[in-house]
Write a structure and sequence with these properties.
single chain; 295 residues; mainly alpha; Lysozyme; 14 helices; 2 strands; globular
Length: 295
């Protein structure tokens, strides 16, 4: 599901009308140090052990943005509407086979170490990011910060006004989902900050999905430290590197129960842990079988 060298655009002034009735959000467009959306996070993160000066510097960066459009997708997105058949078309399968040839050594090493078929690793890379060619456009930090900020009822109110005409959710269901997602996102945000601090990455330079997943394998941050692996031996886990992403996918699947010769019903359960969508799992296993067959 994610990257691009540019930061997200500032919150469109088109949404000014959403904020005029809420004093906390009254000014038209905020980014960086002037943004009120992340004030609570800047107070909460140091209480949870992060260096306050470092957090202040991050949220003062002009690339910081409240991603209204991105977070809205959580309330209007439908997994079943995605066209997974596109990944089984001849051109996509051809690209997958070429990927397997290009990254033969990395796939073989992962298969040897973890006992996970190279075809299922490739199938996941294909569906997640088109084999690393589309790793997402949204700032992971902005996405997770925006979702985490929904813990504030004033921020939640602004989002409700934006999505109320397009979501199938009623207000009570929206509030429940927003509260649940904000708690989840805060945990992912803290995992992301620890990861970029340990690996010395620019926290605002990493792009991913609107859900905060990142890299060729689209790991959420809380999976990176326990399950991400250094596949090229350079001493760091960089999920935008093919060798690291391949090794990480294989390790993830092995951790969740994949083994050589795994039967179809068990394979379904393991892939389901990667993405809780039956459409997704069916697509991955179909591609896996196609790639297993003689070309």
């Amino acid at each position: 599901m994610f990257r691009n060298a540019l930061g997200l655009p500032a919150l469109p002034c088109l949404f000014l009308s959403l904020f005029l009735t809420t004093p906390f959000l009254a000014p038209p467009c905020f980014a960086g140090a002037d943004s009120p959306y992340f004030k609570t996070l800047q107070q909460r993160l140091p209480r949870d052990g992060f260096d306050g000066a470092w957090i202040g510097k991050i949220y003062a960066d002009p690339r910081i943005d409240f991603d209204m459009r991105g977070v809205s997708l959580y309330f209007v997105h439908s997994e079943g509407s995605l066209n997974y058949d596109q990944f089984k078309e001849p051109a996509a399968i051809h690209n997958a086979r070429r990927y397997m040839a290009t990254h033969k050594a990395s796939l073989a090493a992962a298969e040897r170490l973890h006992g996970v078929d190279r075809e299922v690793v490739t199938a996941i890379a294909l569906v997640e990011t088109r084999l690393g060619t589309y790793v997402g456009k949204r700032s992971v930090l902005n996405s997770l910060s925006t979702m985490a900020a929904l813990a504030d009822p004033r921020v939640r109110e602004a989002l409700w006004r934006h999505v109320s005409s397009t979501t199938h959710l009623g207000r009570a269901s929206f509030d429940h989902k927003a509260h649940r997602k904000s708690n989840w996102a805060y945990g992912e945000l803290t995992a992301f900050l620890r990861y970029v601090r340990a690996e010395n990455f620019d926290p605002l330079g990493i792009k991913g999905s609107y859900a905060g997943a990142m890299g060729i394998c689209q790991f959420i941050p809380s999976n990176i430290v326990p399950l991400g692996r250094d596949g090229n031996g350079d001493g760091r886990v960089d999920l935008f590197n093919h060798a690291d992403a391949i090794m990480s996918i294989a390790n993830y699947l092995r951790h969740n129960g994949w083994y050589p010769g795994i039967p179809a019903d068990r394979a379904y359960d393991v892939v389901y842990t990667y993405n809780h969508s039956s459409y997704y799992v069916d697509a991955i296993l179909d591609i896996y079988r196609i790639l297993k067959a003689p070309s």
